[in-house]
């Protein structure tokens, strides 16, 4: 699973990346600005992109809008401190998988990532075709939360 975390706050980037790495997700990249995020999303294949909404220069919805057409099988999860139903609805309409309000429970975040990754496989027509490495990574990451 290849994940990009986009947030202009270094502490948020570091804490989410550490959580994902501790859960066995090895391919976790970070980006602290919208312009660079758009470039990287268009150039690389990410399975999941975690986007902050409020950032300087370009916000998370602008990033989503600018990149979703290029990467229709990438799942975007908005992870933000902004608790606004209208923004959440707009994000979903633009193609976000989910809209989570910070502070988010670690287990809820991990479960949302897991479900988004499963959906990606179904939407891309790849259900059941994950590599053995992906299956092991998913299993290791989510064993503690799936009972």
Automatic annotation (TrEMBL):
CDD domains: REC_YesN-like
PANTHER family: REGULATOR OF RPOS, TWO-COMPONENT RESPONSE REGULATOR ORR33
Record's keyword terms, sorted: DNA-binding, Phosphoprotein, Transcription, Transcription regulation, Two-component regulatory system
GO annotations of cellular component type: cytosol; protein-DNA complex
Protein name: Response regulatory domain-containing protein
Span of domain Response regulatory: 2-117
Originating species: marine sediment metagenome
GO biological process assignments: regulation of DNA-templated transcription
GO molecular function: phosphorelay response regulator activity; transcription cis-regulatory region binding
């Amino acid at each position: 699973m290849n994940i990009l975390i986009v947030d202009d706050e270094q502490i948020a980037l570091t804490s989410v990346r550490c959580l994902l790495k501790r859960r066995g997700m090895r391919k976790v990249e970070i980006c602290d600005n919208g312009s660079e995020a758009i470039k990287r999303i268009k150039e690389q294949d990410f399975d999941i992109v975690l986007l902050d909404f409020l950032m300087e220069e370009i916000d998370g919805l602008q990033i989503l809008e600018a990149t979703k057409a290029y990467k229709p099988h990438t799942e975007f999860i908005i992870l933000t401190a902004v608790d606004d139903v209208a923004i959440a609805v707009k994000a979903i309409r633009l193609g976000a998988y989910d809209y989570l309000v910070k502070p988010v429970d670690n287990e809820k975040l991990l479960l949302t990532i897991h479900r988004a990754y499963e959906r990606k496989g179904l939407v891309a027509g790849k259900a059941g075709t994950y590599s053995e490495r992906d299956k092991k990574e998913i299993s290791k990451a989510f064993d503690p939360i799936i009972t």
